[in-house]
Amino acid sequence: MQFIGKRKWFYIFSLILIIPGIISMFVQGFNLGIDFEGGSMLRYKMDASISSTEVGETINSLNLVKEVSVQNSGNEFYIRTNELGQTETQQVTDALKAKYTNVELQSAESVGATIGSELTRNAFMAVLIALVLMMIYITFRFEWEFGAAAVLAIFHDVVIVCGLFSLFQWEVNSAFIAAILTIIGYSVNDTIVIFDRVRENLRMKKKDALDVLLDKSIMQTLNRSINTVLTVLMPLITLLLFGGGTIKVFVVALLVGFLFGMYSSICVASPMYYEIKQRG
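^ that's the sequence the OP posted. Answer follows.
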């Protein structure tokens, strides 16, 4: 199969995925969680038959909050609002206990806007540092062309995941940042396996043209890439279906990132290496 020869089709496919996400990031931004925006997260244990809509209406009737978001997983309800003090949290608890039975406050967390902006800056720096370190490591282990191609592929994966979260306004919290860093690690690992095979084939000094050699290297590692991602996806799908609401953001980000991590290792990293070598 010709991967390098069809690279323009891969670029077009990637652009179709990336451009709407970038537009969304500039136009509507992200649905930031309280970790970054500031606010309160209340966790209650209540009767599972109660709907999240009913809980939201009960809280809104108190006129204490500007915005409320309620999610539930079984008998656990997660209520996100603007920042609440102790008195306001107690009023919310009293109102829920007055209307429903078996109401128990499990936890109440608040993050101020100042802390949220600091976490945003630190999260950005963490991702940037990870990309720079990957570039240095791959350049040291292979050569700078491999490093540049790998970082471009990783950036491709990160932009796709961030774009999807912006388009669908899925919540971005600290778990999302952890997922992004995990995706970076997975993607570069898969890319290095292919590049290692490319380097071995180059050392054998075959007479094949570079595009033919790259195609052969990809085919030699293709089964491993597919089997690895399938092995990872099975537990992630299980977690998505049965893991509860608290880890869904993390799992969805990993699912999307790992899928496109495999795709970029095969269809983006090697073609980008070819482009850089041709122009070198």
